[in-house]
Amino acid sequence: MKRSYAVKTCLLMMLLCGCRWVCADDYVLDFSTKAGACGIYTKDWSWVDGDMEWLLSGAQNGNGKESIVRFGGKSNAKGVSYVKSVTPLPLVVREVVLNVQELVDEIKTFKLYVASDDSFENPIEVVNRTPVSGLVSFVPEKEEVWLAGMYYKLEVGWNNNTTTNKAAQIASLTFKEGVPPPVYTVMATVNDESLGSVSVQGKVITVAPEACVTYGEPAWELLEGEGVVTQNGNVFVVAPKSDCQVRINLMPMDVYKVILEAGGGRLPGETELTQVDCTAPVVLPEPLSPCAQWTFVGWSDTPVDEINVMPQLIPAGEYQPTAHTTLYAVYQKVQGGESVQTLKMDLDATIGWEVQGVGRGGGDTAPYYILHEGAAIFSPPFDLSGIIDISARVRTYNNHSTLLVTDEADNEWGRVTAWENILFTEVGVKTQDLVGTGRLKFTSETVTATRGVGVSAITVRYASVPLVYASQPNCEPGSGTGGQSLKEQPVLYVEGRAVCFEAVGGQAFAVYTLSGNRFCAGLTGSGMNRIELPVGVHLLSVGEKVFKVVIAY
């Protein structure tokens, strides 16, 4: 090992080749100076020169007479030999030049690792070069130089690690010294200290915003000096070109308003809801229907013309707005006869469905939810006894997993299985029927703990009494408002599990589930009528009047 002390004249170099570096001594790792042979490729051996120590693995200097070291042969590192520094190089490096005397075709890669410690687990930079004979140059790609105190590792890789004579013959490794970049001071402030604080460590500014605070436009400004600032969340990294001061601009987050359009129905409160703060939900009420025979079923972010398929609905109750928005009440009317209804969930179109504990997979072209243990997808509630078929766009992994379909009490309906490792639609195989009004639960049944099932769409078809939905119900003349008394007699009341109401004899009545399936029907008798009902929510129609009945226990 030796150093090359060439005397240079900077002015002359600048005149001749535009030299931007000051005069400096290069550091040369000269393999021709190694005395003694190491004839075993797989042996690790060190090389000490003054304060510097290097470690070589899978390399030898031939027969001790050649002025090269051979990297290659049968290595214990699966086709990789290397030389690395055990101690840091006290030199600012602008270029590393590898002098390759000869190499065989099977040598495939030269890689130079630069790290701040000798483990090389988190390198500052890795520079790849195609191996050729002659001088092979490695230069920094992220900064202009590698700073002093760095560790260096050169890897030589090849295809065949079972043959002993595959080698790259390398004469020297030269570290060309450069000029360390100037050290500039970065300072930071915030436009309003009541909104958050900033801290600076070197070139990194970390912001701690208060609750309900976001960044202004622009998020940062240079008050003094020159530099480039990049933002990643609450961290701002500065590439200064001088001493500089950065101001971080914060502003309170919006609180959103939700305007309620009840379609002629009566709201129990205001038509405009405002968040208390940016994290607080608003509470969506249940409006009283404007018409008999129409019942409120939920809210929609778009108005609904009369349709026969249940739209995506937002239930009454807590709702977290993400922007100023208008929601439209949706009402439902029971029609005669039976029909097939469809519930459908698509990826990112899950209103009315609950997606719980899932991950994301598949990239941008074929994304899907990943259901591992504990993750589940729930359908909106409907009459489970009317299920016709269930299909899902699923992805499983080499038959290791199945999409399991149950009710919320884990009674199994059946399974949906993809027999190939691709996305496609597969109809479920039914195990048994389910009963009652409720939600379906979709989970992953795995035989391998690390495998889940991917789901991008679910479709459920079920038979029910046809329903029609609308935001502006077409009220029949004189129908009045749902919930009024019958023929001027008292409104119904609930007693235990029975609904009681007075009516003149001979009026048609019927009880439906919220999904439209009929529970019972008949004609009223004169005076008090009493109907026993199961626990749940029901629609009772008597003549032209429709009532919502809740049996709680």
Helices and strands in order:
Blueprint: H1 10-17, E1 27-30, E2 45-49, E3 52-57, E4 59-60, E5 69-72, E6 80-85, E7 93-103, E8 107-115, E9 125-129, E10 134-138, E11 151-158, E12 167-177, E13 186-190, E14 196-201, E15 204-209, E16 213-224, E17 227-232, E18 235-240, E19 244-252, E20 257-261, E21 272-274, E22 282-284, E23 294-300, E24 317-319, E25 325-334, E26 339-346, E27 354-356, E28 359-361, E29 368-371, E30 376-378, E31 382-383, E32 387-395, E33 401-407, E34 412-416, E35 424-427, E36 429-430, E37 437-438, E38 440-446, E39 453-464, E40 467-470, E41 493-495, E42 498-503, E43 508-513, E44 518-523, E45 527-532, E46 536-542, E47 545-551
Parallel strand pairs: 13-19, 20-25
Antiparallel strand pairs: 1-12, 2-3, 3-6, 4-5, 5-12, 6-11, 7-10, 7-12, 8-9, 8-11, 14-15, 15-18, 16-19, 17-18, 20-21, 22-24, 23-25, 25-40, 26-39, 27-30, 28-29, 29-39, 30-38, 31-37, 32-35, 32-39, 33-34, 33-38, 34-36, 41-42, 42-45, 43-44, 43-46, 46-47
Give structural notes.
There is one protein chain. By secondary structure, the chain is mainly beta. 1% of the residues lie in helices and 49% in strands. The protein contains 1 helix and 47 strands. The strands form 11 sheets. Strands 1, 4, 5, 7, 10 and 12 form a 6-stranded antiparallel sheet that branches. A 6-stranded antiparallel sheet has the order 2-3-6-11-8-9, with no helix packed on it. Mean pLDDT is 82; it is low at 1-23 and 477-489.
